[in-house]
Amino acid sequence: MLNMASILISLFFIISFSPAIAGISNVESDINDLQTYIVYVQEPKHGNFSKEIDLESWYHSFLPASISSNSIDDDHQSRMVHCYRHVISGFAARLTAEEVKVMETKSGFISAHVENTLQLHTTHTPRFLGLHQNSGFWKDSNFGKGVIIGVVDSGIGPTHPSFGDKDMPPPPAKWRGKCEFAGGAGCNNKIIGARNFLNKSEPPTDNEGHGTHTSSTAAGTFVNGANILGQANGTAVGMAPLAHLAMYKACDDYNGTCPESSVSAALDAAIEDGVDVLSLSIGLGPYQHKEFHANAIAIAAFKAVKKGIFVSISAGNWGPKPFSVVNDAPWMLTVGASTTDRSIVTSVQLGNQETYDGESLLQWTDIPSEQLPLVYPVTKNASATTNCSPETLKSIDVKGKVVLCLLSVNPQDVLDAGGAAMILMNNELIGDSIVVARSVLPNVRVSYMVGESIKAYINSTSSPTAALVVKGTVIGEKSAPAIVAFSSRGPSTVSPGILKPDVVGPGVNIIAAWRTAVEPITNTEYIFDIISGTSMSCPHLSGIAALLKSAHPDWSPAAIKSAIMTTADTINLEGKPILDRNHLPADPFAVGAGHVNPSKANDPGLIYDIQPDDYIPYLCGLNYTDQQVQGIVGGDVQCSKVSSIAEAGLNYPSFSIRLGSSPQTYNRTVTNVGPANLSYTSQIVAPEGVGITIQPDKISFTEKNQKVAYSVTFTRTKNTNTSFTQANLSWISGRYAVKSPIAISFI
Fold it and tell me: DSSP 3-state helix, strand, coil percentages of the chain (rounded to 5)?
């Protein structure tokens, strides 16, 4: 036996697998007793084995005699899972406990243990959303295999490893798209199409990174070793890693503008090409609301839905002000942004020993961990908006000091003035929403309340000091998900009777593929970056829709949307209501139906389905002219011959009611997509001053795809000192809870 000092033992990683059946004769055992063991052995003596050629033979010699005698036979091969050459001296095999005991007697054996189940740590959002590589909805949906996601954005970096096509099938036979990279070199079985509608003389390359980021979020393949400046290490992967991607470049990747004509052309081509899901992280600017008949995106999206294409679109980054949501047509899934449970923490330690956590990207090697003078540079009688302005910094000495500034300040100004580090505090409107970004000098971003506490400390002493203490990546924040300040809020301006946004998804500090190098990283062209916005939450939902499309190819876009909405989570990891930026429960105009839960959406029980023609009575009810409705839906429409409905009368999974003194009744129809022979009981959470009745209050199904109608009546029972309230309607049956949020505005 070799001396133990000569044994090479390294760290190891093993992937779970599906066992194959194998017979055992030397030690009698049942197939159910087999487990995967990691077996450590000594390196073979080269006098007996050639390490390069016969290492596998050495490992085989430890297996039970009946299956190790012939290293070629099928039984033997099925029991040996991995032969390691670098990570450890050893192997992984399916064995029984008795076989391991026999193995322990063999010369060269060191130890063995049953494999640990390792979790996939990604750009983190798949795990946060309950998606696991070897089980559950991800596996059941085949990772979105065969589904085509069309992304309208700023182009794509085609050679990024996130777009490799290992294990990808060829495009479906229905695919009619084009690849406009020179010679088709930028396309493969992952990127099956790429076109430039912004400048047809150029390839659809992403010269900055936004389109690359959104594409990889939706359907990027597994890439190990992803991180941002050394933080948040893990495996980057999109929501639907086996889905195909088609990029339609319609946006200027330098200034972020997207000409409406280019976007319309891109959507037109995507419909023709045969995509299954459209992902649009674009929209109108703040408060630039347009009626649906004058909104090119809304019209194109309706045409897509008529073809069975699901449309996921961003809600906008104009929050937290009300009426700021854009992309609010009911046939689109409008996606707001929420936080995840991961943060990159740097703490502020004050001279009085008080410590406050903030966030930072930590890209500096000279971050000041010792106590330095702390200053809040505001001149006498000046407003807070002049804090850290170039003029103020000229009049106040900040050299070698930690400088407390409002978030809107340009860090370059503080660096030029000689500041050693910055504490960037949110204003009251932004509250607790922290978005990290790279900076030219060490900094930490803190909430409004933390900033106010630091200001109070500065004012309490003649010599305030502070140090920045690096903690790094932290996972497990119990207040997640929370609604971020920038996520646009409802109500919808164009159609306030439709609750928008529909749902929220991860959109804060999201790590995904990027096209250009991020300093100080060098010697790489394609890396990862961290950005925030509803641009990031939208492709999460696009990828999840692709998973649902793969698992339920017969579901309509409205059915997929309903499944996402009625199963969304309304509580955070702590089991409390999802919070807004100021630690108050988020209302439906911020959170919509809730935070997406992909696994629950795969089995919703009931759905609220809508066929394209069902929107005609709704559009006529908006008092659009025949011509305006025809421009949206196509064909001949005469509203005078249509029984128009109120906005809240659409068969939508949520309710937005403007309630006066008269009762209002709305009808809904649910379709059973769960097991047959189920009965559901209604459950109402009604607010003070509002009566809600359901007729019938119990519904039953005897077969799958059966439809049942019910009505909801809202009555104002007394006046209250509020202009808004909220309620919830759920249909309950065993494991199913089909939830509909209700937003009520008093008129």
Answer: 25, 25, 50
